[in-house]
Specification:
5-stranded mixed β-sheet, 42% helix, 335 residues, 21% strand, 5-stranded parallel β-sheet, binds 2'-deoxycytidine-5'-monophosphate, alpha/beta, single chain
Length: 335
């Protein structure tokens, strides 16, 4: 006898939603474990106390699981436990590899069982990549790697050393001497030059342009990409940048190309600067954005480009919430 575990959260305590979500949980369990509904002998359910409008067992029967024996029980109301959650144990006499299934927020219950996956977000400056990346990281409880911050740190090192005209040889020699690293504190990325946290110094307009300039060089990219692959190879991550889906992680499970018109992006940057208390001018920002777009997408090595298998999301007329919901849905349906 095989015992397959599963759990899902329900978005609302409503019979239609419970029927759909419980049916979906059982469908995914069957699909991942090579079962037909008729192969299941017993399903044991437990549900949290806030699910009142329908028993999961009834939902399962109405979703087409009619031949097996059911048992449902309410869970104790444990402080801090997940809300609106249904847990299932499916018993079957069939043979094969057992794959437990955790869906929606219930994935967080057993991240150890969840498959490792990477999300690649590419797109031009100001398209909303980093806002989306941070929110996705929170939603899925995975790491966010801001690759732009690494190029910005490399650029800041060059600005501080007054490298003339971003001379390639001088830039690459300098980066042999300084060490760009990232670490995480409370889930937030700390980007460092020789151990110094440079998070607040790398967001200026000057460093933005310098990052676009120095990131064209093979010597710079080789170093950054190696570090990015090392970090993303070990755990589930969301990475944003210009070449993540095309070069850094060509096998990423999810790839999105986040875009928006230059004018909308300039508006967003202006607002970011205002929040930081920096006084910048819209026309200058728009000019810089267009220049960076050109520089980032026409450079010889790993230019900004949509990966062939990336989903394009034009965020020009979308709110941050809309973008998150749209992307999250695609991921949840396929994770
Ligand atoms: O995303 P950002 O604005 O922080 O990126 C700063 C610059 O770094 C950007 O103009 C191009 C470069 N970059 C890159 O070449 N490859 C990446 N993966 C990320 C950023």
């Amino acid at each position: 006898m095989r015992a397959i575990r599963g759990a899902t959260t329900i978005s609302r305590d409503d019979p239609d939603v419970i029927r759909r979500e419980v049916g979906n949980l059982l469908d995914v369990i069957c699909e991942k474990n090579g079962l037909d509904a008729d192969d299941i002998q017993v399903i044991v359910f437990s549900q949290t106390k806030d699910i009142r409008s329908m028993y999961p067992a009834k939902a399962a029967r109405e979703a087409g699981y009619t031949k097996c024996t059911f048992f449902s029980a309410q869970e104790p109301d444990v402080e801090g436990s997940m809300k609106l959650c249904v847990r299932a144990m499916v018993l079957t006499d069939t043979f094969g590899e057992t794959r437990h299934v955790y869906l929606n927020d219930a994935r967080l219950l057993r991240l150890d069982l969840a498959e490792k996956f990477n999300i690649a977000l590419d797109g031009p400056a100001g398209s909303g990549k980093s806002t989306l990346a941070k929110r996705l990281a929170r939603e899925f409880d995975i790491l966010y790697l801001d690759t732009g911050a690494m190029y910005r740190a490399a650029a800041l090192a060059c600005v501080r050393a007054s490298v003339p005209d971003w001379d390639e040889k001088a830039v690459c020699e300098l980066l042999e001497k300084v060490k760009i690293t990232v670490k995480y504190k409370g889930g937030a990325q700390i980007t460092m030059i020789d151990g110094e946290d440079v998070g607040s110094d790398i967001r200026t307009a000057e460093v933005s342009m310098a990052a676009s300039a120095v990131s064209r060089y093979a010597g710079v990219r080789r170093k950054m990409v190696a570090l990015q692959r090392e970090i993303a190879g070990g755990m589930s991550c969301v990475l944003d940048g210009r070449d993540i889906g095309t070069n850094v992680l060509p096998d990423a499970k999810f790839k999105f190309y986040i875009d928006a018109s230059p004018e909308v992006r300039a508006e967003r940057r202006l607002r970011d600067y205002e929040i930081q208390g920096l006084n910048e001018n819209y026309d200058d920002i728009l000019r810089d954005i267009k220049r960076r777009d050109r520089q980032d997408s026409t450079r010889e090595i790993d230019p900004l480009r949509k990966a062939d298998d990336a989903v394009v999301v034009d965020t020009s007329a979308m709110s941050e919430d809309d973008v998150l919901e749209y992307v999250k849905k695609i991921i949840e349906e396929n994770v």
